[in-house]
Design goal:
alpha/beta, Rossmann fold, GMP Synthetase, Chain A, domain 3, nine-stranded mixed beta sheet, 27 strands, binds 5'-O-[(R)-(benzoyloxy)(hydroxy)phosphoryl]adenosine
Length: 544
């Protein structure tokens, strides 16, 4: 099995420890300590369950014992694909206690992605909910197992059928858990997948706990806060910015929303007196639209965080007057660096910028395409290095060569400029992925699927600005033989067993890609041209 490491150079690790960023805290220790300090306080509210910190620990211990009883060994990886239910936390903390390593998959992922995560991480087990949102994950698990007959265990939260029932996991007083090394890898997060398939991101106890401890402080969390998880719990934003881990760190209460829609979230805010939550921009727009006529009392909400994609200033401006709370812009990435506008920043900064880094030790470089720093106020490529930004992906030499500079800076792929106050404004990006309502979709990956269709000669996938999604995917397809219909191509994408959000929103058939003048163009340039031509045509149509 390929060992899990996050190779911070020793001199950096030492510096981060000395500065007090890395304090030797670990997830198991954090949970035990909070259960001791905040035992009777409510930790988790979800569905009809309400767990205190004592209960969360007890349930995590039972889960840990159950996983170990299956024969899993410390260091084994376990792909976790659970929706926003309390068992998400007992599972994940249970794995931490047993020194097993969660690999987070989104509920939207399907066979192709799940198999990729299981393979890449060499996982020994796979945890799913029986059903969620009308989808039966046991059916998915069955086909996953057909493709990977060696997959050790499938654990199901809910009616398990032929699989292992999570509800059968019980505490075993004989079991003693040993603590992990703070510098060891606690879990594998998945990347947005800017090129090709998602990469696995090893995060250590040291680096991750620092990021959410510092985030909790920046976001003003206290043990009286009520944090609502509105986005999928597996996403890095609700996980750690400051997210539920930040909330647990300070002994606050975490409320799980099964859906982020106003219909579901607003009554929960009123009932549980939610004080802070985080959304992607398209959802924030929905909330802004729904709030003025809502019958629910949203007055407990102090902070609305928006991130994952660019929140436009005109929309950002409406948050305070409409929702009566402070907007906090969050510009982060699963690889590490997170920027926040501060709660007491002037309104102009909150509305116009995507914030500044968490840490004084976050090194931020903004460079031109040759790697030379640009002047302040000019747009350039964002590179970063720091106490919670990874130095390498897991088991992916190619991506590592592409994504890091020789001196260990992560190339974010984002184009930003820095204001004189040191705040970042996201201008766009250098890589060809589509940021569809906060979900990152790799153009390469979708093109590859389309090319598998017998009547597709070539395909280029681009992002098109979209009023609701921020960006939508548009696939330009050159047919061969009998021209397929757009709905048939979409249906074909579904047979590729990928997350639904990867099915192109729009398909445009073209006879050829215009390669005039240059002769040979890069895919990047080709996509840029197709996109520009499409937008020009649209504008022309609109003008007529
Ligand atoms: C968050 O994480 P990922 O890994 O899904 O995506 C990271 C990418 C960034 O590189 C950037 O391209 C984009 O998402 N992004 C933003 C943004 N926040 C993220 N682009 C413009 N404005 C923003 N505010 O999306 C993520 C992780 C932690 C906290 C928040 C978001």
């Amino acid at each position: 099995m390929i060992p899990l490491v996050q190779p911070f150079p020793p001199e950096f690790a030492e510096r981060y420890r000395e500065a007090g960023f890395w304090r030797g805290e670990t997830f198991p220790q954090m949970l035990r300590d909070r259960a001791a300090r905040f035992g009777d306080r409510l930790a988790v509210i979800g569905g009809d369950q309400r767990w205190t910190y004592t209960e969360l620990l007890a349930r995590a211990e039972a889960a840990a014992c159950g996983f170990l009883r299956l024969g899993l060994k410390p260091g084994d990886r376990v792909v976790v694909q659970l929706p926003n239910i309390p068992e998400f936390f007992s599972t994940v903390f249970g794995l931490f206690l047993a020194r097993l390593v969660p690999v987070y998959a989104l509920p939207a992922h399907r066979q192709t992605e799940v198999v990729h995560f299981l393979r890449r991480s060499e996982a020994a087990a796979y945890v799913v909910a029986a059903t969620h949102d009308g989808f039966d994950y046991r059916v998915l698990a069955r086909s996953v197992r057909e493709e990977l007959p060696d997959l050790g265990h499938v654990v199901v939260v809910g009616e398990a059928q032929e699989f292992t029932a999570f509800s059968g996991f019980t505490y075993d007083p004989e079991k003693a858990f040993s603590d992990p090394e703070p510098s060891s890898v606690a879990f594998l997060q998945i990347s947005g997948g800017s090129t090709g398939l998602s990469k696995l991101i090893p995060r250590t106890h040291d680096d991750y706990i620092y990021s959410f401890r510092a985030s909790a402080e920046i976001c003003g969390l206290t043990h009286e806060s009520v944090y609502m998880v509105a986005l999928p719990a597996a996403h890095n934003f609700p996980m750690s910015s400051p997210g539920y881990f930040g909330a647990f760190y300070v002994g606050a209460t975490v409320v799980l929303a099964p859906s982020p829609s106003p219909e579901t979230a607003f009554p929960l805010i009123e009932r549980e007196k939610v004080t802070i939550t985080g959304l992607v921009p398209p959802l924030a727009l929905l909330w802004l639209q729904a709030a003025p006529t809502s019958k629910y009392d949203l007055s407990s909400l102090q902070v609305l965080q928006v991130g994952g994609a660019k929140f436009m200033p005109e929309s950002a401006k409406r948050v305070r007057p409409t929702l009566g709370c402070t907007l906090q812009q969050v510009f982060g990435m699963a690889e590490g660096l997170v920027n926040y506008t501060r709660l007491d920043d002037p309104e102009e900064i909150i509305v116009e910028t995507q914030g500044r880094p968490i840490s004084e030790a976050d090194e931020v470089l903004i460079v031109d395409d040759q790697g030379n720093p640009v002047a302040d106020g000019e747009a350039g490529n964002l590179l970063t290095r720091g106490p919670y930004t990874i130095r390498a992906y897991h088991n992916d030499a190619g991506a590592n060569a592409r994504s890091f500079t020789e001196d260990g800076f992560y190339k974010t792929g984002d184009v930003v400029k820095r204001t004189p106050e040191g705040y970042l404004v996201v201008q766009g990006r250098a890589t060809d992925h589509i940021n569809r309502a906060g979900e990152k979709i790799s153009a390469d990956e979708i093109e590859d699927h389309l090319l598998a269709h017998p009547n597709v000669f070539d395909a280029a996938v681009v992002s098109i600005p979209d009023q609701f999604l921020g960006e939508r995917t548009c696939a330009f397809v050159i047919p061969q033989g009998e021209k397929p219909k757009a709905p048939a191509l979409k249906a074909f994408m579904r047979t590729r067993k990928v997350a639904d959000f990867k099915v192109p929103d729009q398909i445009v058939f073209v006879e050829a890609f215009d390669l005039t003048a240059v002769g040979k163009v890069s895919r990047k340039e080709l996509r840029a041209r197709l996109r520009a031509q499409f937008l020009a045509d649209e504008q022309l149509k609109a003008g007529q």
